[in-house]
Design a protein that fits this description.
Blueprint (H helix, E strand, L loop, with lengths): L9 H22 L1 H29 L11 E4 L6 H5 L7 E4 L38 E6 L4 E6 L26 E4 L5
């Protein structure tokens, strides 16, 4: 009497491993984790600029109408930007200055949020998730109209110019390669 062994043959195991490998590659290519991370950072950028826009609007609505900035200065979250905050703003913006994340008027948005009667809406100003010479937040304002503009560059295919969730060309601003928000998008 011969003993019959139960189990998988080497060929069967190799076929199953090959099928699992092919399915894994298909899932990774479909999901594209690098693009999903870019989309998450872009979503964070839109949210951060919306928060800052609301805070500046609150500052102005609270009666804090003095900010000593003119239309020739842009402020950025990093010092590695070129003129006009890397092209985020129009030709009238010529000077680029940078600062930290303080909310007392010495941060990269030179608005004293601590002067708001209910207090600053955040403890530190948000900065771009990457914060380098390509991806950073920019701010410019005019004391003439108490108007301002915030801008950021999107990195994902979805949120960039021409993508399915394009926020760069549909934001109403004058620069079609960055996301712009604020009360005067022509700065």
């Amino acid at each position: 009497m011969t003993k019959k062994q139960k189990g998988f043959t080497l060929i069967e195991l190799l076929v199953v491993i090959a099928i699992v490998a092919v399915l894994s590659v298909v899932v990774i290519l479909t999901l594209n984790p690098a693009e999903l991370l870019k989309q998450a950072r872009d979503s964070n950028r839109v949210s951060d600029l919306s928060t800052i826009k609301s805070a500046v609007s609150l500052y102005l609505a609270d009666g804090q109408t003095t900010w000593g900035m003119g239309m020739t200065t842009c402020y950025a979250t990093t010092s590695t930007v070129g003129t006009r905050c890397g092209g985020y703003f129009g030709t009238q913006i010529t000077t680029t200055t940078t600062a930290g994340a303080a909310v007392n008027g010495t941060g990269w948005v030179p608005v004293n949020f601590a002067a708001i009667s209910s207090g600053a809406p955040f403890s530190l100003l948000p900065v771009d998730p990457i914060n380098n010479g390509t991806y950073f937040y920019g701010f410019a304002a005019t004391s003439t109209y108490n108007a301002f503009k915030l801008a950021a560059n999107m990195e994902s295919i979805r949120y960039s110019n021409g993508g399915s969730g394009d926020v760069e060309t549909t934001d109403g601003g004058t620069v079609t390669t960055v996301y712009e928000t604020g009360s005067m998008l022509t700065l």
